């Protein structure tokens, strides 16, 4: 059986750290907590689980802090978590099994990351991350912000899920780090450009974000998953400002890097739907529902676009095209995923009462 060091960096995480460590402490063999300047009870909570609590002077560099935490590890493999991550009961059991079965030839294990949820508890955003890495390989974190673990070798894709619990907001902290780097005249890597664009967009600086995204896409040097994501996000900016030709151009550019994804098909469908071009919109939403969701790639997956969203939009398209039975059928498909959604229930009532669609038992 392999042994595992859990390595975490934290700051002012008293509201989540206890639950996080309770969910994982019985599964790992060592817990290392690196605090970057907490002023609340974070360190007190950490010390109730481990004596290995270290201070690290914050230098506006997440990779530096994570690499320091990794350097303290002594076990066979290193697992990393953030303070607002959890391992649910079923995934605790899976990790216990993995510890027993993991062979020494494995350099890294990816785990699913359920990152965001809707009001009904459905996963809205998920991705894979390299979570468990062999300590002897000395893999390093790269990048001061939106850091990534630079992993190579023999990688195993597991079905273990890490669950993220934080309600997301945009404090401007990461954007400030990027802006300081711009002020200092630093050269941005392609990955830096992509995440700088994301931070600008998330902080509603859409014009600046569009310039950065266009530069990133044009240079063609980034990871293909980041380019596809940038195409999706930039097309959304253009659609918000009614720049329909640009939105279409950028969305289609994503197909240079991979076969169509449901996210981009739904973006194109939404683009035509906004212009009341229902036939074209229908075409793209139908493409989305016919695609098979990728299992092992490491990019973000917007789960709604692979499940209920294209059906709900097809309900709208078919309604405007006068095909009420098909409209009803797709609304019912959406209702399987969101049985309490007020929009879905409104559509159901409208179609059953006004257009006399017979309910199929």
Automatic annotation (TrEMBL):
Return any one Pfam family short name: TPR_8
Instruction: Please tell me whether the keyword DNA-binding is annotated for this protein.
Output: no
Q: Where are the TPR repeats?
A: 262-295
InterPro entries per the record?
Glyco_trans_2-like, Nucleotide-diphossugar_trans, TPR-like_helical_dom_sf, TPR_rpt
Task: Indicate the secretion signal residues.
Answer: none
Q: Which UniProt keywords apply?
A: TPR repeat
Query: What is the name listed in the Swiss-Prot or TrEMBL entry for this protein?
Result: Glycosyltransferase involved in cell wall biosynthesis
The scientific name of the source species is Fictibacillus halophilus
């Amino acid at each position: 059986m392999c042994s595992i060091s859990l390595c975490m960096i934290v700051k002012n995480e008293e509201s989540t750290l206890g639950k996080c460590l309770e969910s994982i402490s019985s599964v790992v063999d060592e817990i290392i907590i690196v605090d970057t300047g907490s002023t609340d009870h974070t360190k007190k909570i950490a010390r109730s689980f481990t004596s290995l609590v270290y201070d690290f002077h914050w230098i506006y560099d997440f990779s530096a802090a994570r690499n320091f935490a990794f350097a303290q590890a002594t076990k066979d493999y290193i697992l990393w978590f953030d303070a607002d991550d959890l391992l649910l009961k079923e995934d605790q059991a899976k990790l216990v099994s993995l510890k027993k079965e993991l062979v020494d030839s494995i350099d890294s294990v990816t785990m699913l990351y359920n990152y965001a949820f809707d009001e009904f508890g459905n996963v809205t955003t998920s991705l894979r991350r390299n979570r468990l890495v062999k300590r002897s390989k000395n893999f390093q974190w790269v990048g001061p912000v939106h850091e990534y673990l630079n992993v190579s070798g023999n990688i195993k894709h597991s079905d273990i899920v890490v669950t993220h619990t934080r309600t997301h907001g945009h404090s401007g902290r990461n954007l400030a780090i990027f802006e300081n780097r711009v002020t200092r005249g630093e050269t941005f890597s392609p990955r830096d450009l992509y995440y700088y664009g994301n931070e600008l967009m998330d902080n509603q600086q859409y014009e600046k974000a569009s310039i950065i995204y266009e530069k990133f896409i044009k240079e063609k040097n980034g990871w293909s998953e980041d380019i596809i994501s940038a195409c999706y996000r930039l097309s959304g900016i253009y659609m918000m400002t009614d720049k329909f030709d640009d939105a279409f151009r950028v969305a289609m550019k994503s197909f240079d890097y991979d076969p169509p994804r449901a996210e981009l098909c739904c973006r194109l469908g939404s683009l035509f739907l906004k212009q009341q071009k229902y036939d074209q919109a229908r075409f793209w939403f139908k493409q989305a529902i016919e695609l098979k969701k990728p299992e092992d790639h490491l990019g973000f997956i917007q789960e709604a676009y692979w499940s209920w969203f294209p059906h709900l939009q097809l309900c709208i398209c078919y309604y405007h095209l006068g095909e009420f039975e098909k409209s009803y059928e797709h609304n019912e498909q959406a209702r399987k995923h969101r049985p309490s959604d007020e929009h879905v229930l409104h559509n159901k009532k409208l179609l059953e009462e006004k257009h006399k669609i017979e309910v199929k038992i």
